[in-house]
Design a protein that fits this description.
Strand order of the largest sheet: 2-3-1-4
Distance between the termini: 20 Å
Order of helices and strands: EHEEHHE
Shape: globular
Length: 96
Amino acid sequence: MRTLALIDHRVADFDAWKRMYDDFRMDSAKEGVRFHQVLRSPDDPNRVVVTHAFDSSGEAAAFIEGQTLRDAMGRAGVDEASVRTEYLEEVESGEL
């Protein structure tokens, strides 16, 4: 069963943030990210929700709470005060 980290936050400029996110993707894979999604609010283009799936809750917490991610988020223009993180355990997944 995987652990999903859901990170809701605001960014200064979505396009600049997305370039940084794409550049950081290989680093996140090395840190245990097995799956990701980027979601964007249709009403607020600078509100972003990212999901990352991990093999365990320990891996999820280590990555999300680690300095490497915090540094990358700072360089990407994330409003640190807006960051909200939630950890969820996967019960079921699939495509229909």
